[in-house]
Design brief:
globular, 102 residues, 79% helix
Length: 102
Amino acid sequence: MSNLLLGLISGFIFGAVSVAMMLPMSFPDKRTALLAAFINRFAIGLVIGCITLPAWPGWAVGLLFALLLSLPAALITKAYAPILIIGAIGGIAIGGIIHGWH
């Protein structure tokens, strides 16, 4: 399976899991918040699948790009810990799965 396809699949799964975790929460515009969270987490999977940094272990590539892509949402919402921690965990897992743990 290609890295792009793995990135698409993992991004979709990561987005769905993030939305599921947010369902019990209340937001002024819940539909927009859930859509934004899904798009952000989907993008993390997609980007990690498209990026290759040969000298880096896969988990580090995932962590770097997950934190970079999660930071704007964390800054806007001021919910730093949950957004960055969940993003980091997902990025490490996706990077390790797609690019390896070495």
